[in-house]
Every structure is written in C-alpha cells, then in structure tokens.
Write a structure and sequence with these properties.
Strand content: over 45%
Radius of gyration: 16 Å
Shape: globular
Number of strands: 24
Strand order of the largest sheet: 1-24-23-22
Distance between the termini: 14 Å
C-alpha cells in the first residue's frame, strides 16, 4: 500500500475530522484519540463505543453497542461523554452543527442543535452516512447504492450517484471517499458522470477530514494514513 502509511495500533472504525482530530474504536469497543505522534500514536479515552465521528472543529460523537448516543465533552473530570437522547447505529460529524446518523432500521437523522429535542428524521433509508464541515452529506444504502443529500428540495432529498459502496466518509464537498464490500477504496472525482477513481489498497472503514486528511482501517484492524497527496 504505497499510498498508505501504516500507523501502529488496531482499530475497527475510524473517523478523521482534520489532521489533528482523528479518533477510532477497536473490537473491544475501546476508544482512542490520535496523539499526532506516530511513535506513540494513540491515547485511550474512557468509555465504550462501536462507532465514532469527528469534526473539523474538534467535535466528537459516538454510539455504543446498545445504540446509545454520546457527545464528547473533553477531559472534564470523570465525565468525558454526555448522553444524547435517541438511538443510532452509525454516526457522522462534520462540525458542531452538522451531525448525522442512521439507526439499525436504516432511518436517517440529523441533529437539531437542541439536546432537548435532538433529532429530525430525514426521508430515505441508509446504512452508513458521512457529513462534511461544509454541510455536505452522503450516504449508502443496504444494497450499496450511493446518495448525496440535496437538502429539502421537494420530495427528492437525495440524488443517486453511480457506483457501489458499503462505507462512505465526507470531509468536504471535494473530499469524499468510500470502500466497497470487497475492501476496494474509491475517491470521488467531483464529476457525477464519472464519479469514482480507485485508490490502491484494501480497507474496511475510512475517515476523511475537511483538510484532505484520510485514514482507514482494514479487515484485520490495521490502521493506515493516506499519503498519496504528499510529495515524495
């Protein structure tokens, strides 16, 4: 994987909000934050999660194995996480005000920025979702279909984009990545007529930040940082 640098550790899900805001969870549901030091890359964060989302502005949310939803509060004593009402299976964070998730039944929810009434249902059915710092949102459904959110434009909230993916991540309008059921990696070309270019490597989950940062994990939990856009 010439375009990927292996970073020590083992994770099952990863999220990258930016170069300095990378988080992951492992198969034991332990939570890790990247230290920005490849020699000692991860610091454990108290809690238990199965999926995690990290925004460009430092916002972090996660969901646990029971569908419980949590927002990271920082290192404020023993209470690192605050529970937000609702139930989700996957979560995506672009920024403090752009948080989306899907539940185990495929229903789609957008955060309202009001913890007392936190979620609004968005028409459609997805199994994974990605949200960018600029408001961009993409998702994939149970059949691998790929959709980009168009907003509340009549009945058509989503436009289908050709291709097939099982996981998708959005850093921004121009930094959208996904992986398919065979572990193949794709990057969005910004051209809906010919939307995807294959990237060497094999991953099972992927995270893209607003600044172009991309991380991934493979089927045996190895962790990789994308170096393809870096000189040399």
């Amino acid at each position: 994987m010439a375009t990927w640098k292996n970073v020590s550790g083992g994770l099952t899900a990863i999220a990258a909000g930016s170069r300095t805001n990378v988080w992951g969870v492992n198969s034991s549901e332990q939570i890790y934050r990247y230290t920005n030091d490849d020699a000692n890359p991860w610091i454990g964060i108290p809690g238990s999660l199965v999926d995690i989302g990290a925004g460009a502005d430092g916002t972090v949310w996660g969901v646990n194995s029971g569908g419980g939803i949590y927002r990271y509060t920082g290192d404020q004593g023993a209470n690192h996480w605050v529970n937000i009402p609702g139930s989700l299976a996957r979560i995506a964070v672009g920024s403090r005000t752009n948080v989306w998730g899907v539940n185990s039944a495929g229903a789609i929810y957008r955060y309202t920025n009001d913890d007392a009434n936190p979620w609004v249902n968005i028409p459609g059915s997805l199994v994974d979702i990605g949200a960018g710092a600029d408001g961009t949102v993409w998702g994939v459904n149970s059949g691998g279909g790929i959709y980009r959110y168009t907003g509340d434009q009549g009945a058509s909230h989503w436009v289908n984009i050709p291709g097939g993916l099982t996981r998708i991540t959005v850093g921004s309008r121009t930094n959208v990545w996904g992986v398919n059921s065979n572990g193949q990696i794709y990057r969005y070309t910004n051209d809906d007529a010919n939307p995807w270019v294959g990237i060497d490597g094999s991953l099972s989950d992927i995270g893209a930040g607003a600044d172009g940062t991309v991380w991934g994990v493979n089927s045996v939990h190895a962790i990789y940082r994308y170096t393809g856009d870096q000189p040399g």
